[in-house]
Design brief:
This protein is mainly alpha-helical. It contains five helices and no strands. Helices cover 67% and strands 0% of the residues. Bound molecules: heme C (HEC). Heme C binds next to helix 2, helix 3 and helix 4.
């Protein structure tokens, strides 16, 4: 390879590797987010059984008389994790609102997204 061709090749490789690196990094970030959200939803499942099931039924099936939480209807009202989590934080459990930590409200929110077959959430 002549000198100019070599430098051209090096320049192309730098561009290719940079783009590849950025895409790889973004992919890793997305994978890490989904892994975190999956752990949070699992924690939410245990919290739900302990604190929410008496009124909302097992798996949010509504058996306790409070609204069903497993058919997606609640996500028509609170369509983002942030809005659902804010509602839960301020209003639930109805018998003792305000007792949840921010992390617990997030865990419960992700569990409800999972129950609604909208997991992982597509936006924050
Ligand atoms: C003492 C009974 C009771 C408990 C315990 C309870 N809830 Fe509720 N929940 C209700 C009632 C009643 C409503 C409907 C009235 C309202 O929206 O405030 C409701 C509404 C909701 C809604 C909104 C549903 C909709 O379609 O508008 C969500 C989400 C929710 N609860 C989540 C939870 C979570 C998560 C927990 C556990 C931390 C929990 N609830 C515990 C009684 C309860």
């Amino acid at each position: 390879m002549k000198g100019r061709q070599l430098w051209g090749f090096v320049a192309v490789m730098i561009v290719v590797l940079t783009i590849g690196g950025v895409l790889w990094y973004q992919h890793q970030q997305a994978v890490a987010t989904i892994q975190l959200q999956t752990r949070e939803a699992t924690a939410g499942q245990a919290l739900f059984a302990a604190m929410c099931e008496t009124c909302h039924g097992p798996g949010g099936n509504g058996a306790g008389g409070a609204p069903v939480l497993n058919d997606g209807a609640v996500l028509q009202k609170y369509s983002t994790p942030a809005s659902l989590s804010a509602f839960i934080s301020s209003n639930m459990p109805a018998s003792d609102p305000g007792i949840l930590t921010t992390q617990e409200a997030t865990d419960l929110t992700l569990y409800i997204f999972q129950l609604s077959h909208q997991f992982p959430p597509t936006h924050g």
